[in-house]
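Hi C.,

You asked whether I'd gotten around to modeling the 225-residue construct. I have! Everything is below, sequence then structure, no commentary in between.
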Amino acid sequence: MADQLFKRRKSALLREKNKIQKNRSQRWLFVCEGSKTEPNYIKRLIEYYNQKSDEADIIVTAEGTGRNTVSLVESVDDFLDKTAEYRRNSLIPYEKIFVLFDKDSFGAENFNRAIALCESKGYIPIWSNECFELWYLLHFEYYQCDSGRQVYYEKLSERLGEEYDKADNIFDKIHSDESIKRAYHNARKLIEEQADEASAAKKIPCTQMPVLIDMLEEKLKIKIV
C-alpha cells in the first residue's frame, strides 16, 4: 500500500514537472527597476509582436520592483522563491529571465557588478546607461551625447508634443514598424562605437534593448528590424 502511494506521488510529481517544462518554453520573466515605465513598455511590445507571429505567444510576467542594480538582481531569487512551481519542484518556470536596470547616478562598480551577477546566474541583463528613456529617444533620432536623463526627458517631450510622463504607457506614442527599426539600428551603432570599452559603466549613452529585439525575432520567427 505504501509502495503504491509512493509510486502515485512520484508519477504525479513527474507529470507536474513535465507540464512546467512544457509551459516554461513560452514564459519570459522581466524583473524591472522601474515600477511602471519598463513593465508597461515591455508588456505592450511583446503583445504587439505576439499578434504578428504564427508561433505560440510569449507569456510575459513583468515585475516592477523599485529596486536598483545589485539589489534588483538579488530580488529575482526572492521572486522565484515565492513561485509555487519553484517551491514545489525547484524548477524555474521561465524559459528566459531578463533584468532591466539603469546606470543613472549609481557608481560604476555597483553597476558593473550587477551585470556580472546577472550573467553568473543565467539572467539576461538589459541595462541602459544612463536610463531606459534613451531607447525611446532612439526611435526618433541617433543620439550619442552624454547629457544626462533630464535632457532625454526634454527631448522626448519635444518629439511627443507633450510633456513626457514616466507613468504613461508610451509604446503606442512612439512605436511603428519603421521607428523600431530606427531605434534598433541607432542602438546597435552606439554599441558598436563603444565596443572597445570594457566597462559598461563607461559606455554612455548605451542600451542593450537590441538584445531583446533579436531574441523576439528568433523566438517568434518574425522580422522586426
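If it helps when you're writing up: The longest strand covers residues 96-102.

Thanks,
B.
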